[in-house]
Write a structure and sequence with these properties.
Largest sheet: 6 strands, mixed
Number of strands: 43
Helix content: 10-25%
Number of domains: 5
Radius of gyration: 29 Å
Number of helices: 7
Low-confidence stretches: none
Mean pLDDT: 89
Structural class: mainly beta
Shape: globular
Strand content: 35-45%
Length: 597
């Protein structure tokens, strides 16, 4: 996996609304989502479905149950974040970054409401290529009926709390660290104890004990490297020795350290200058049901609740509901299928049990039945496949078989042997420009190129490519809808991206350095300035220059990346003609005697 373009956690800037990270190997900053909102389906309905499933007759298997299917979308006000970023780093570009994993739990918004226990525990989210987070949770019949009653009453008294994990590059330090792993883990275990802890809590322990840990460094640890050293040690130790806690009640994942007796002795040497892929977790809490309540008030719960009756299943048969969490709109994707295989379990079942299904695109769910022996534990191998087509032909790709035992099986693009990238342009950007270009990659000796065009009518495109693709890159440009201007974006790795105006240095807060030296002592020169994108002729400011104050730094906001400059004129100009200064990064020197154009 290429690290280029991922968040570089060594360069973090904390803004009032959350952190932003520099991109590793690219000249752009990345803003993680800090809010979760309910997603929408086609037609504006909430991306929420409560299913209640019962057998064909009472007391027949399987017992009644329910399932909750809900999609949440990460949001961040990029314009607000851009203002804070530009104040610290003038001219910086800012883009959103999608989470790679997440955990969420539902809890009662009102202390007087008692939510079932199965709601109040974290559930792993399935994230699509564009960062949308899908929660799929099997419910008991009682919990499903309780939620249905709440929907009918229009209350939906739940809030969502969780954490989103963003994959990026750990800080690097010009050091090597040498240690005995048994001694180090023993020392840390004695300090921390046996209780589970999050990665951030672990980093705090590392920093507090940094001077006393049994680690030999190649260079002296000074105050300038202390924070980065603590962070990269925490990342590396947690990745190498941490044991994940599967039943953690915390929103962010937790782990424990093994007993010192489980770790051998010897000498480890880590080069802390080498980049390491790691994850940072951001805690999020939201009320995604706000939209749901408004929908219930207008249209009622019928569109959100689905009741179904299962066909009677023989003893030992198990129903598995498979959900493909990918973008079905991809023009390359022709078909999706899944095969489940339970190995032989003699003597009661001497042959393998196999069930296969095709996903009826555009629907991305399929029901399968595995015929097992009565009382047999549900365990199987799941392997997906996809049929892809492009200008180079049609091909079948397959994912690696993986072990599973769930009755609700969630699948990602990797399970079908694919990599997925979703490109979307923000409405504000498409109001000014169209996005064009292509996605390029190679499979074996064959080069592939997928044309890309994003417009107001088609603001999003999903790309499904073989997981074996190499050298994937996006080559995109923005084309001015009101003129001939074009702005090329730097080539980027072929990953999901949401394009927004904040990615263009010519949009947003700008700084212009203007100087003017009056020719006579005591004289005052007034200069009128206004952004090129100003909507009204009266939206100008007047800057005064005099002896001892011949230079000003003027800040303004550009509403279009194609016209980032400003206009200026001497207030005393007889004809009031404006001059254009196209590049705010270039200082403007005004001669008081300069004639108008």
């Amino acid at each position: 996996m290429t690290l280029t373009g991922l968040p570089d956690f060594a360069r973090t800037l904390t803004l009032p609304d959350g952190p932003v990270w520099a991109a590793y190997g690219r000249d752009v900053w990345l803003a993680p989502a800090t809010e979760l909102v309910m997603g929408e389906r086609d037609g504006g309905a909430p991306a929420f479905q409560l299913s209640i499933i019962r057998p064909p007759a009472p007391f027949l298997p399987p017992p009644p149950f329910g399932s909750l299917d809900m999609t949440l979308v990460g949001r961040r006000d990029l314009e607000q974040a851009l203002v804070g970023l530009r104040a610290a780093t003038p001219g910086a570009a800012l883009a959103g970054v999608a989470a790679a994993e997440g955990r969420l739990r539902l809890s009662a918004a009102d202390a007087d409401v008692v939510a079932p226990d199965e709601f109040d525990r974290p559930v792993e989210l399935t994230l699509s290529g564009d960062g949308d987070a899908r929660l799929l949770q099997r419910l008991s019949a009682d919990s499903a009926l309780l939620m249905e009653r709440m929907l009918i009453d229009g209350i939906a008294p739940f809030i969502a709390a969780g954490a989103m994990g963003f994959r990026g590059v750990s800080p690097r330090v010009a050091q090597t660290a040498e240690f005995d792993p048994g001694a180090l883990i023993g020392d840390l275990s004695a300090r921390i104890g046996a209780d589970p802890l999050s990665r951030d809590q672990f980093a705090s322990h590392i920093e507090a004990a940094l001077d006393d840990l049994p680690i030999a460094y190649s260079e002296r640890v000074d105050i300038g490297t202390r924070a980065g050293l603590s962070q990269t040690l925490a990342d590396r130790i947690a990745a190498r020795f941490g044991q994940p806690v599967e039943t953690s009640a915390s929103e962010a994942p937790e782990f424990t350290l093994p007993a010192a007796s489980q770790i051998g002795h010897g000498r480890f040497t880590w080069d802390l200058r080498q980049p390491l892929l790691t994850t940072r977790w951001i805690t999020v809490s939201a009320d995604p049901f706000r939209m749901l309540r408004a929908f219930l008030a207008e249209r009622g719960p019928d569109a959100l609740v689905r009741r179904s009756v299962l066909t009677g299943l023989p003893r030992g048969a198990e129903r598995i509901d498979a959900y493909a969490n990918i973008a079905h709109e991809s023009p390359e994707l022709q078909a999706l299928g899944i095969t489940l295989t339970a190995p032989p379990a003699p003597p009661h079942r001497p042959s393998a049990a196999v069930a296969s299904a095709m996903f009826p695109l555009p629907a991305l769910d399929a029901a399968l039945t595995l015929r097992l022996a009565p009382g047999e534990t549900l365990a199987y191998q799941a392997q997906g496949f996809a049929i892809l087509a492009d200008a180079a032909g049609v091909r079948r790709v397959e994912g690696e078989a993986r072990a599973a035992g769930e009755r609700i099986l969630t699948l990602t693009a990797a399970d079908f042997g694919m990599a997925e990238a979703t490109l979307e342009a923000a409405p504000a950007l498409l109001a000014l420009a169209e996005i064009g270009g292509e996605a390029r990659y190679r499979v074996g000796e064959q080069d592939h190129a997928i044309p890309i065009r994003l417009t107001e009518d088609a603001p999003k495109v999903a790309l499904c490519i073989p997981a074996t693709a190499e050298d994937g890159a996006l080559h995109l440009s923005a084309f001015d809808r009101s003129g001939d201007g074009a702005l090329a974006l730097d080539p980027a790795p072929l990953r999901s991206a949401r394009l927004d105006l904040a990615q263009f240095p010519g949009y947003g807060p700008q700084e212009a350095r203007i100087s003017c030296a009056p020719s006579a002592s005591g004289a005052i020169i007034a200069i009128e300035v206004m952004p090129e994108t100003a909507e009204n002729a009266s939206d100008f400011e007047t800057l005064a220059f005099r002896e001892g104050a011949t230079e000003r730094l003027w800040r303004y906001f550009s509403r279009s990346p194609f016209t980032p400059g400003f206009k200026w004129r001497l207030a005393s100009a007889p004809d009031g003609a404006w001059r254009r200064h196209a590049d705010p990064a270039a200082p403007l020197v005004v001669e008081p005697s300069s004639p108008p154009p």
